[in-house]
């Protein structure tokens, strides 16, 4: 697969996946749930990069931002370190919501915690508006804190999909770090380990697409190399 086609292939997969999910509708929720669980166990967060409807929505926002020539919003390392625990807080809140609000035992304990339909509508509009604005300015911003993505991340390192790196051939150009939508620094910083699969990785392959050196970065599936970086003689950096 030519490097310039990787992103196009991923967008096509997202489009097809969203169309299938919409076609199946709510009547197939159990099947979709089982497929989601199976894919997480086998492929980790590959679902996030190639199937998730919210991921597709964020891709559209990023494409629109680039079309309008609006620069991405950069967050300093210090701020990122402060925000890092946020995904665990959101995960705990999500699990608590499933247990207490989803099953609704809390209604009998604290009726004041239950929302009316009008309140929920306003609440959802505000949340969606804020998330949309953030994701427009920062690529895949929601994915960094998505509770389902965080859960999938637990099996990323034991899944059959792996991101590999030849640290001895790396020229430290930072191309992989600068293009990573999940801001994974280890893909650039790691020098010794060959398996650099990170729990936050959504397998978008942008690092492999951006790497200008032959076979420095690669993606393997079931132990077989599926994709690898190619030397770019025109690369300036």
Automatic annotation (TrEMBL):
Principal subcellular localisation of the protein: membrane
GO terms assigned for molecular function? iron-sulfur cluster binding; metal ion binding
Q: Name one GO cellular component term.
A: plasma membrane
What domain of life does the native source organism fall in? Answer: Bacteria
Compartments it resides in: Cell membrane
Identify the residues that the record assigns to the 4Fe-4S ferredoxin-type domain, covering every copy. 161-190, 192-222
Q: Extract the signal peptide range.
A: none
Its transmembrane ranges are 7-24, 30-57, 88-109, 121-137
The answer to whether the entry has keyword Iron is yes
The identity of this protein, by name, is: 4Fe-4S ferredoxin, iron-sulfur binding protein
UniProt keyword list: Cell membrane, Iron, Iron-sulfur, Membrane, Metal-binding, Transmembrane, Transmembrane helix
């Amino acid at each position: 697969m030519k490097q310039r086609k990787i992103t196009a292939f991923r967008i096509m997969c997202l489009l097809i996946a969203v169309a299938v999910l919409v076609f199946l509708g709510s009547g197939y929720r159990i099947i979709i749930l089982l497929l989601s669980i199976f894919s997480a166990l086998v492929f980790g967060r590959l679902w996030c990069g190639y199937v998730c409807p919210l991921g597709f929505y964020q891709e559209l926002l990023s494409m629109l931002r680039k079309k309008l020539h609006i620069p991405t919003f950069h967050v300093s390392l210090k701020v990122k370190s402060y925000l890092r625990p946020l995904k665990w807080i959101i995960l705990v809140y999500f699990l608590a919501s499933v247990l207490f609000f989803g099953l609704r035992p809390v209604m009998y304990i604290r009726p004041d915690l239950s929302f009316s339909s009008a309140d929920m509508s306003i609440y959802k509009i505000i949340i969606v508006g804020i998330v949309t604005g953030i994701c427009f300015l920062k690529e895949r911003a929601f994915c960094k804190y998505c509770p389902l993505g965080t859960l999938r991340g637990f099996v990323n390192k034991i899944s059959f999909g792996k991101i590999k790196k030849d640290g001895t051939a790396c020229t430290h150009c930072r191309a992989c770090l600068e293009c990573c939508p999940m801001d994974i620094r280890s893909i650039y910083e790691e020098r010794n380990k060959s398996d650099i699969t990170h729990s936050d990785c959504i397998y978008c392959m942008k690092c492999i697409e951006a790497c200008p050196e032959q076979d420095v970065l690669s993606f393997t599936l079931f132990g077989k190399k599926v994709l690898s970086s190619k030397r770019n003689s025109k690369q300036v950096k």
